[in-house]
């Protein structure tokens, strides 16, 4: 089985990113009221950037300037004051807040300084910062941003440098690459869900997903680099190994790359895709492409789960159980199972469903079924890329 990395990986990395162009975009969930998931195509022409299906792209985003301005107003800064930013660059504070500081989630250094400044009036937060209150602190912070705390404690005095010094560096966000260089040379496709929610009476948006979906166009530089998908690799094209791909939501992204690659390399072995989303009509990401692959035999089976098209939630793990006998027979033929998408809820539920069908159709006890899954893991036949 292939675990190789590209042979001539150019030196693009965190310190030396490729500045790509976002050449094309498409809303994949047109008409869906509950969510926005976007398809992006980055132009890599002339860069020599190399990657394999299963790799991710790390993107440097900018914060929303409107949020930076709101923070500046709350602090009484003009925005022109010079500060040393987390990259050790001397820049105007507004630029630092937009480009290099994390200005949404309150981190420990900011909270500690805030409680020191606020004294008794922030003693409840100071208590939560004690090591034995970790869970209570994360409950308190759920949906709470720096701007909320600045507004809650309006009389605190901060200098521009002091404020920037307690903020973390704005970190990259990773996205599973949704295309294969063999099928789409000089391109890198992404499938990005806009993170958007209401908390404390405000609409919040994820930094990078809102940047790419709402604040970029063709002229926006998109600094990026590849992060290798440790072990999330296809078998060699000539290996006749069944491939089962379980990717609800944006978890579909690497499997689009897998199928493009398998199509381009005429890969042997049958394939089965499990996909789940909210509504069949509006959220069936890349459905035309799956139809084409089914017609060509690149895909042998697609099984879908639409969570809100009926009264009861239907998720991919319900479909795994429903198709348990056939899935068990694929496992016994040596299939590799790939899982991508939500780590918190979906991946554990899918894991349980796999254990259940192995027990039910393999005639195994709970312990034997766990040992079977463990052996699959050791044999690299159960590979997960979850976030
Ligand atoms: C290997 C890997 C591959 C990935 N691939 C993809 C991909 O292909 N497509 C994709 O869309 N994403 C993918 N992700 C996730 C992606 O990296 C980002 O985490 C995601 O886009 C959110 O980033 P953001 O900057 O928009 O949001 P952020 O600014 O980072 O905000 C997200 C944070 O907001 C908070 N939050 C979210 N919802 C709520 C809520 N309802 N209430 C309160 N707080 C909330 C949580 O603290 C959450 O951590 C991947 C992650 C990894 C590690
Ligand atoms: N922190 C969290 O709680 C959380 C949860 C989900 C996603 N996320 C993050 O949100 C981003 C985008 O998510 P996404 O758009 O890719 O899709 P998603 O939110 O994972 O949703 C895709 C589909 O999976 C369904 N789903 C929900 N719970 C599930 C479960 N336990 N098992 C199987 N399927 C389940 C959803 O149904 P319903 O929505 O109808 O229930 C939806 O139909 C990702 O970065 C992901 O990590 C975070």
Structural notes for this entry:
- It is a single chain.
- The chain is of the alpha/beta class.
- It folds into three domains: 100 residues, Translation factors (Elongation Factor Tu (Ef-tu), domain 3), CATH 2.40.30; 101 residues, NADPH-cytochrome p450 Reductase, Chain A, domain 3 (Up-down Bundle), CATH 1.20.990; 144 residues, Nucleotide-binding domain of ferredoxin-NADP reductase (FNR) module (Rossmann fold).
- Helix content is 35%, strand content 21%.
- It contains 15 helices and 15 strands.
- A six-stranded antiparallel β-sheet has the order 6-3-10-1-2-7, with helices on one face. Strands 13-12-11-14-15 form a five-stranded parallel β-sheet, with helices on both faces.
- Strand 4 and strand 5 form a beta hairpin.
- Helix 14 packs across helix 15.
- The radius of gyration is 23 Å and the shape is globular.
- The mean pLDDT is 96.
- The structure holds flavin-adenine dinucleotide and NADP nicotinamide-adenine-dinucleotide phosphate (NAP).
- NADP nicotinamide-adenine-dinucleotide phosphate binds next to strand 12, helix 12 and helix 14.
List the ligand species.
Answer: flavin-adenine dinucleotide, NADP nicotinamide-adenine-dinucleotide phosphate
Quaternary: single chain
Order of helices and strands: EEEHEEHHHHHHEEEEHEEHEHHEHHEHHE
CATH superfamily of the largest domain: Nucleotide-binding domain of ferredoxin-NADP reductase (FNR) module
Compute the separation of the termini in Å.
Answer: 24 Å
Mean of residue pLDDT?
96
Count of individual domains? 3
Helical segment count: 15
- Classify the fold: give the CATH topology of the largest domain: Rossmann fold
Largest sheet: 6 strands, antiparallel
Estimate the strand proportion: 15-25%
Which architecture name of the largest domain does CATH use?
3-Layer(aba) Sandwich
Number of strands: 15
